[in-house]
Design a protein that fits this description.
The protein is of the alpha+beta class. The chain has two domains: 145 residues, Barwin-like endoglucanases; 86 residues, no CATH class. It is 16% helix and 29% strand. It contains three helices and 14 strands. It has a six-stranded mixed barrel with strand order 1-13-8-12-9-14. It has a four-stranded mixed sheet with strand order 2-5-6-7, sandwiched between helices. A two-stranded antiparallel ribbon has the order 3-4. The longest helix has 18 residues. It is globular and about 55 Å long. 34% of the residues are buried.
Length: 244
């Protein structure tokens, strides 16, 4: 029952994300004059776990916001940056990355799936949290929107940029009611991350730990074309979609 309620919310939100656009905005933008980047991609998502345990989610001021029972769940939440904490009534709270501290709440190397990771696992346990809503938030208080938000290195792609990725156009996004919507290829640069450097982007997929996109290979050697969108009407709509 708890998962059903969370996924029902996911379905409503994702449908809203795609209902923002008329059929005319699904068209491919002019590409001949557009700035092109060769990028590589990973994906990230909202981790879902039950509330309770002994590992604390701490606010920047040191207050305890909630507890987590399992080291792997806690550390996955730290990696992803947003977590849904399910309670005994079937509801959930949303915690979002806020900052880091000098004190670690958990040794994430103790989680078997991160023992041999090449990422900076040692820093994850020092994440501090804040209460949030929806799917959490990225940079500049932009809200995260499934299958739309991407995390970027602002030195390569400025925040607020709309990207068009041809390999995403036509990909079917499966909704929880069994229906699906067609992706139009547009994404919004509304987040960042410590591991996001240069031409690396991270695609946000809501509560879906998998992804439908053929261009996401999690390998810097497997790049794809992405174009900067200059149409002010499209930029306005995507910024509005990401504003609270």
């Amino acid at each position: 029952m708890k998962s059903v309620r969370v996924f029902a919310f996911t379905f409503i939100f994702i449908r809203g994300a795609f209902a923002q656009f008329s059929d005319t905005l699904l068209a491919e933008p002019p590409l001949k004059s557009a700035i092109q980047h060769q990028l590589w991609a990973t994906e990230y998502y909202v981790h879902i776990t039950s509330e309770g345990g002994t590992i604390p989610f701490l606010a920047p001021n040191g207050d305890t916001l909630a507890y987590c029972e399992n080291t792997c769940d806690f550390c996955t939440a730290c990696l992803e940056g947003t977590v849904f904490l399910l309670d005994s009534t079937g509801g959930h709270r949303v915690l979002n990355y806020a900052s880091r501290s000098a004190e670690s709440q958990s040794n994430c190397r103790e989680c078997s799936k991160y023992t041999k990771s090449k990422l900076n696992v040692e820093s994850w346990g020092s994440v501090r949290w804040k209460l949030s809503s929806g799917f959490g938030e990225g940079v500049k208080s932009y809200r995260l929107v499934p299958y739309r938000t991407v995390a970027v290195d602002p030195a390569c792609i400025p925040y607020g940029t709309v990207l068009y990725i041809p390999e995403a156009k036509g990909v079917r996004i499966q909704l929880e009611d069994g229906n699906s919507v067609e992706h139009d290829g547009y994404f919004f640069a509304g987040d960042t991350g410590g591991a996001i450097k240069g031409n690396h982007i991270d695609v946000f997929t809501g509560t879906d730990a998998s992804h439908p996109f053929p261009f996401v290979h999690s390998s810097e050697t497997k790049t794809f074309a992405a174009f900067i969108v200059n149409d002010l009407h499209i930029i306005y709509h995507f910024k509005a979609l990401h504003l609270k």
